[in-house]
Amino acid sequence: MNEVINALKERRSIRKFTPEMPKKADLEQIIEAGLYAASARGEQDAIIVAVTDPEIRDRLSKENAKIWGKEGVDPFYGAPAILIVLARKDWPNRVYDGSLALGNMMLAAHSLGLGSIWIHRAKQEFEREEWQSWLKSLGIEGEWEGIGHCAVGYMAGEMPKAAPRKENRAFWAE
Q1: So what's the architecture of 17-153 in CATH?
Q2: Could you count the other beta carbons within 10 Å of the beta carbon of residue 25?
Q3: Dist. CA 33–CA 108, nearest whole Å
């Protein structure tokens, strides 16, 4: 079977990571895959912020857990690297474009032997002044909406098994 189709079928959301930070070169490849995602009208609107600083990662985790209503839990499952996808607030296709970037990054992580999982609540995080100010401190100007987090790291344990695929989800108009 085709290598890409195999990756699509084999990739799983990982919910347990080792604390070891992935190699920067691997993270760069994952980000590049996200930047090559399809985008509406070729606008390439989505941006990616890589968080590898443990202090910032932990602040982000606490904020995310608070929004989730599960304080004291790590919503990133111990993943040491968090790749945040944001898109311009005024771009009507921001969620679609950002979602494609996240999908590309998760597949790229899998292809490099890394685990990943998409974590929500980035929208709510980046509606808060603290995180908007943080973006500005990184030189990111303008109005940005958080689309999602791609938590990345080395998988702890075994690869989860695929759930059986539901039937009657593909239709043909021939």
Answers
A1: 3-Layer(aba) Sandwich (3.40)
A2: 9
A3: 6
Question: Residue holding tokens 């606008």?
Answer: 43
Domain boundaries, the chain: 17-153
- How many other β-carbons are positioned within 10 Å of the β-carbon of residue 90? 10
pLDDT per position as a tens digit, 133-154: 999 999 999 999 999 999 999 9
Contact 146, 84 (CB under 8 A): yes
Evaluate the CA torsion angle 96, 59, 30, 68 in order and state its sign: negative
Question: By the 8 A CB rule, do 21 and 80 touch?
Answer: yes
For residue 62, what is the DSSP state? H
Q: Tokens at residue 103, please? A: 């999908």
| Residue type at 111 in one-letter notation | S
Whole-model pTM? 0.96
- Confidence class for position 11, pLDDT limits 50, 70, 90: very high
For 47, left (φ over 0), alpha (ψ -120 to 50), or beta? Answer: beta
115 sits in which H/E element:
strand 115-119
Say how many C-beta atoms besides its own lie within 10 A of residue 81's C-beta: 23
Residue 1 pLDDT grade (very low, low, confident, very high; cuts 50, 70, 90): confident
